[in-house]
Automatic annotation (TrEMBL):
<feature type="compositionally biased region" description="Basic and acidic residues">
    <location>
        <begin position="61"/>
        <end position="70"/>
    </location>
</feature>
<feature type="compositionally biased region" description="Basic and acidic residues">
    <location>
        <begin position="79"/>
        <end position="90"/>
    </location>
</feature>
<feature type="region of interest" description="Disordered">
    <location>
        <begin position="61"/>
        <end position="99"/>
    </location>
</feature>
<protein>
    <recommendedName>
        <fullName>Secreted protein</fullName>
    </recommendedName>
</protein>
């Protein structure tokens, strides 16, 4: 009974190793490499396309927010005033670090 168990385990291990080796050798052929490269390129193209769609959706959403802010808030509009430079004040210069 023990011998039969170990024989079955050996056959199962042999089948698993044979399948793995044949799959690896198929991937190593030019056709297998082309298939892998093609799959990678399709995946990359899909990722770039979905990224572009998300960016466009975000841009559209932000544009709507900005239109709502400009169109709908005429009462809450902030008034800016121009500050004229005083001719009498000396021009200020930025300090250098270490001085």
């Amino acid at each position: 009974m023990r011998r039969l168990f170990w024989f079955g385990a050996g056959v199962a291990a042999g089948v698993a190793v044979t399948r793995k080796v044949s799959e690896t050798t198929r991937k190593a052929t030019p056709a297998g490499m082309a298939e892998q490269l093609g799959g990678a390129m399709r995946e990359l193209a899909g990722a770039v396309g979905s990224f572009g769609a998300e960016v466009r959706a975000g841009m559209q959403e932000r544009e709507e927010e900005l239109h709502d802010a400009v169109d709908g808030s005429s009462a809450d509009t902030v008034q800016f005033r121009r500050i004229e430079a005083d001719d009498r004040a000396p021009a200020r210069r930025a300090r250098r670090a270490g001085r």
